[in-house]
Amino acid sequence: MKIAFANAKYKLIESSGGNAHINQFINNAVALGHEIWVWPGNQHSLVHHLPMKRLDMWRTLRSMDVLYIRIETAPPSTCRWSLPPHRWMYGFPIVVWEFNSIPEYGLLRGKTSQEIEQSILIFRKYSPGCDMAICVSNNLGDYVTDKLAIKKAFVVPNGSDPNLFKPDAPPVKQLSNSENQLNVVWIGSADISWHNFDILLSASQIIHHSSYKDRISFHIIGKDSADRFGRLPPNVFYWGPVPYEQLPNWLSGMDVGLVLYHSGQADFGSPVKLFDYLASGLTVVSTDQPQVREVFEQMGQSDLIVPDNDATDLADKLIRLANDQERIQRQGELSRKLVIDHYNWRRAVQDTMNEIEAILDQKGISNRTS
């Protein structure tokens, strides 16, 4: 298939999960034999760039099998291409919207309630032209059908690349290799308020004032707000943002990965860090995020879910893991196997392409490249 991934903005040096998702979508779609077309400015080496001259762009877009639109929060301008007259002009056989969060996520990015409502209205306006919504979680799938009036939602959880993230990746030199040391990692942007960064700080304080202060170390990777730096106890190390391609070398030196959210907007997501932890063979401890709970149930580790805001429970769980190296080993092996067997990017992209091809078949449309 020829896929117009029109609004994908991939950058070579970028640490965000969204950028990683775009990269893996392109890599695996091309590996499966598809062509990905984007606007100039996308830095991925495997894409084709749409011409900027209007007539040439029109001709190129009319050769596409799919208009594929990535949605973070607000509707991009290309959503209007889902309906006539743009859809007639470009002749897209099918239109797919890929949802990664709900419009209300914009509230965490400084948007007003009025702006969120306007985004929802725009989604609903153009939703009749959306043949399918790809959603990263079951909650998100329910949201887009119920609130955005999209007729078909297909759930495709995120994943990881087990060939990139693996336990035997050479660890960075900054990490202790002591057998008695439990290295605990959290990846994210602490200035985004859906992250429950406070529970991490509180748990680290509890452990710092316990007999385990020298046995359990916390490592923070990602963007942080400057006012938090002075609050870090001695057992917490802030390393700043790390390019995504270098994360495997950090995670291979860790034992436990943390997924910490407040309930709300985060309940609709599919945390990329979760699957990268798993691929790296880490034991994961998390707050009660719906998709994380699903994964934990598959691995028989629901006891590693922390009640919201219960820092004492988080500290207790980490202390128990520090005393149970056998479980760390067992859960790590289960973690990686689950990614290899299912939660990987190749599966995610293959499932997406299979569903798109099924819609083309239902409409009696042959791939223009076949």
Structure notes:
With about 375 residues, the chain is α/β, with parallel strands linked by helices. The protein folds into 2 domains: about 1-160 and about 345-360, Glycogen Phosphorylase B (Rossmann fold), CATH 3.40.50; about 180-340, Glycogen Phosphorylase B (Rossmann fold, 3-Layer(aba) Sandwich), CATH 3.40.50.2000. It has helices at about 15-30, 55-60, 85-90, 115-125, 140-145, 195-210, 245-250, 270-280, 290-300, 310-320, 325-340, 345-360; strands spanning about 1-5, 35-40, 50, 65-70, 95-100, 130-135, 155, 180-185, 215-220, 235-240, 255-260, 285, 305. It has a 7-stranded parallel sheet with strand order 3-2-1-4-5-6-7, sandwiched between helices. Strands 10-9-8-11-12-13 form a 6-stranded parallel sheet, sandwiched between helices. Helix 9 links the parallel strand 12 and strand 13. Helix 6 packs across helix 10.
Strand and helix map with partners:
Blueprint: E1 2-4, H1 17-31, E2 35-38, E3 48-49, H2 54-61, E4 66-71, H3 86-90, E5 94-99, H4 113-126, E6 132-135, H5 138-146, E7 153-155, E8 182-187, H6 197-208, E9 216-221, E10 236-240, H7 247-251, E11 256-259, H8 272-279, E12 283-287, H9 290-299, E13 305-306, H10 311-322, H11 325-341, H12 345-362
Parallel strand pairs: 1-2, 1-4, 2-3, 4-5, 5-6, 6-7, 8-9, 8-11, 9-10, 11-12, 12-13
Helix pairs in contact: 1-12, 6-10, 8-11
